[in-house]
Amino acid sequence: MTPSPPSRIYLLRHARSAWAQAGERDFERPLDGEGFAEAEIIAEKAADHGYRPDRVISSTAVRCRQTAEAVRRAMDEELELVFVDELYNAPVDTYLELLRANTAISSLMIVGHNPTIEEVLERLIGTDESAGVIPIGYPTAGLAVLDQPSVSDAQFWRLTDFLTV
């Protein structure tokens, strides 16, 4: 029997980040003032909808870490946060492998970067569905909620919700 990924996946793009300061690497860019507000708002919206992952896996980039921390504050201080270096500038397959590797939990949130987070959504729900949900791109602090298809041979995951600020 092949282990299956979690039955619910949350894909969260980090909130708006500041522009790099002189000498600052892209990886080190923090959220700006608007980004901190976005992170808090989307985390609160998700909590208000009853969304709570069993685990949050986040890129180690500063802006992703700050977004993940907002999720923990809004949902549960005991929420498990895992920071993974490989999510920064990662291809789609790295994100998908993380989903496949987390079989012992029922729900997982990934906090990551664009364009990869958008490509993961497209791969999981299909090109047409993705284009209908995010016609002009995956917004900062956008949160997709996906559930496993009810039919085991279905090609795509089911988009349950898409929250924005």
TrEMBL record:
SMART domains: PGAM. Its EC number is 3.1.3.-. Keywords: Hydrolase. It holds the Pfam family His_Phos_1. One of its GO terms (molecular function) is hydrolase activity. PANTHER family: OS09G0287300 PROTEIN (PTHR47623). This is Phosphohistidine phosphatase. The lineage of its organism: Bacteria, Pseudomonadati, Pseudomonadota, Alphaproteobacteria, Hyphomicrobiales.
